[in-house]
Amino acid sequence: MTTTVILLCLLASVLELDVTYAFQTLLSRPIIAGPLFGLCIGDMMAGVQVGIFAELLFIDISPLGGIVPPSGVVASAIPLILYSLGVDLYFGFFFGVLMALLYSLFDTLLRKTRFKWLVFLEAKIGKKPTDLWRIVGVSLLLSFLMTFIFISVASWVCAQTAFWLFPYLSSKVHFAFQMAYMAVPWIGLATLLSTFRLKTR
What we know:
The chain is an all-alpha fold. The protein has one domain. α1 packs antiparallel against α2, α4 packs across α5 and α5 crosses α8. 32% of the residues are buried.
């Protein structure tokens, strides 16, 4: 992996913590994370475009209750990582959406595994309250590392898949992906407008 890819994976892993585990400053929203990733690769406009598209696609899904939505951070990071490696945005974006959906399953599995440790940790903190911050710190570090591993592996797999597929794709397929990519914000806006209309009734 290049230095830029490693930097993007590290930044995405930190921003993913912002979703629910820590901070919650909204920096993890795709519309903010996308431009930040764009700055890292030296193409701010690509970051803005991907961030807006991902935001519109996932804006109606919130991490409330037991819902683990697709990761807007992953959906923004993967396309820009691939773009920095030479993959067109209109291909990379769909890889990003797929990986965002997979990450929600991955995160659900991590949460279920973590839940089994809660009773043990609660008892440990009850005996020694000063361990609280150390346990919280270790938990955040583990979440960061798991996200970093996921994004790194996902980026590598997507890049290898894209480079393997390219020679077999015709110009019509490229055109179809370009049209599908340009349709994404309109799909997001349509969903958003229908949601607003239902809430005003």
